Amino acid sequence: MEKVSRRQFLGMSTKVGAATLFTGVFAPSASSFFGLGGVAHAGTKKIQEFNFAVLTDAHLYNIADHKFDHILEKAVADVNGLAKKPDFVLYGGDLGQSGKKEELAKGKAILDKLTVPYKIIPGEHDYYLDMGAEWRGMFGPEHWSFDHKGVHFIGMNSILIKDFWSARKLTPTERMGLLEELECHQCGAWGVGEEQLEWLKKDVKNLSPDTPVVIMTHSPLWDYYPRWNFQTLDAPEIRAILKKFEKVIAIHGHVHQVVYNQIGNIHSAGLLSTSWPWPYPPVTLPHPEIKMNRVDPGNFEDGLGTHQVSLNKDFAGMMDYRAFADLLPENVKRGLKL
Fold first, then answer.
1. Is the pTM of this model over 0.85?
2. 45-337 classified as CATH 3.60.21.10
3. Which end of the chain is more exposed for a tag (fewer CB within 10 A), N or C?
């Protein structure tokens, strides 16, 4: 009988247990490319070829020399050491775990070691201790846009919820504690809210339909698994605003895993974290062939990583999942077309 390796054995299971936290310091290894999804529409405006890196979900604790500190530091070192230097870095939220000033300051100090500029959006773990006050003081606006080499980039705060805490007289710490849960059934679904929707309409109003667009949110812009807030409440409104564009690439954090979907003109991809991998929820994925292997509980590097996105002149994107360990199936190692 042919011997089965530990990795092969773990990859056989389709049922994933609870996520495992990680310790240790390690050196990431580069991945190659795999193709999935459609190519850019023929009419999409030509751009200058470039690449950018993406990091997300460090979940830093206010504990000195914590294991997650080292992982984020290694991720920054990986980005700084890329053979093809990125033009900038996008960070997808949840830099801290409990929204504390010390967590955010620690994260900023590590991200400031990047040798290229970075743009960041908040996650729920950054936000609900003080409603984003410390985060805004360090990083600026919660939503933004900029143009780079022919591409319009958008970042939005997708974790806004209705006030459920005032009537219950919850303290900021109690409020934050509830939002730290993966399943906060008292919190309600989150989204970007009316103010940001109006801002988005104005932001893209004068852009031509052939403009290439990249949007980053913390949560997915599709209903993946609402029970874990793997969704954005007003994603249909966002998709409607962006419908005029021939192609939009959407990148999101929060899910701590490789996941892909396409709705109309929007190609969405989820990201690996630098803290822990979430298991896949019990739903059928629209593209199950890119599902990660089961995390090896004996390998502290498994399930984490960084990302590099390359855009060619036709706005055909390729995401390179730079996994820290042997988590990815062979096709994902070859890259994900966006």
1. yes
2. yes
3. N
